[in-house]
Amino acid sequence: xxxxxxxxxxxxxxxxxxxxxxxxxxxxxxxxxxxxxxxxxxxxxxxxxxxxxxxxxxxxxxxxxxxxxxxxxxxxxxxxxxxxxxxxxxxxxxxxxxxxxxxxxxxxxxxxxxxxxxxxxxxxxxx
Amino acid sequence: xxxxxxxxxxxxxxxxxxxxxxxxxxxxxxxxxxxxxxxxxxxxxxxxxxxxxxxxxxxxxxxxxxxxxxxxxxxxxxxxxxxxxxxxxxxxxxxxxxxxxxxxxxxxxxxxxxxxxxxxxxxxxxx
Lengths: 127, 127
Hints:
By secondary structure, chain A is an alpha+beta fold.
């Protein structure tokens, strides 16, 4: 399997194993010194153990599904459909892998809904 | 050039030509029936002409730089550093290309800063 295929498989597994609360399986994908960042809140989590705990403690009956995974060498991006009950939010996740195929860096964006600014109604439709 | 390399080059050019206000060059990358969506505001723009006009009319002295481009077959994701004056925001853009290498679909996310929720201070550091 080439590097991109391995990266694509790992990114998909990262979403699937998190969704299944397969903590051992998720741990197997992560480098021990993985760094996880949420730039919107300027939060950073260092290390596999802390990141697993963060996921295990995350409140709510959350569910994740990969809408798209794009892999390129040791980089991947995952477009995720996240749901808690009736609430839905998309996430955008950027992954970096090490030489040996473990995830070393995760950057997570959680874009929130906003009202469209005025002045472009002549160009846009709403959905 | 293989499909992924062509997609990667097109995604990078999409950012660069928009930054340069090279409207003819940007137009050359877009399918005539390109669809541009901003899921956060549920806005959609249909067609190359309207999308070019949207970019041309976009207010402010904005600047775009690709922080990372990930390409995979006919899909790409671009992680963009966007600035207007002193203000900075990251964007996450998902691209789909046609058989002949033109951009047919663009999905744009503009995640905004938020305060970290309480209850995870024991796991996170701030940056």
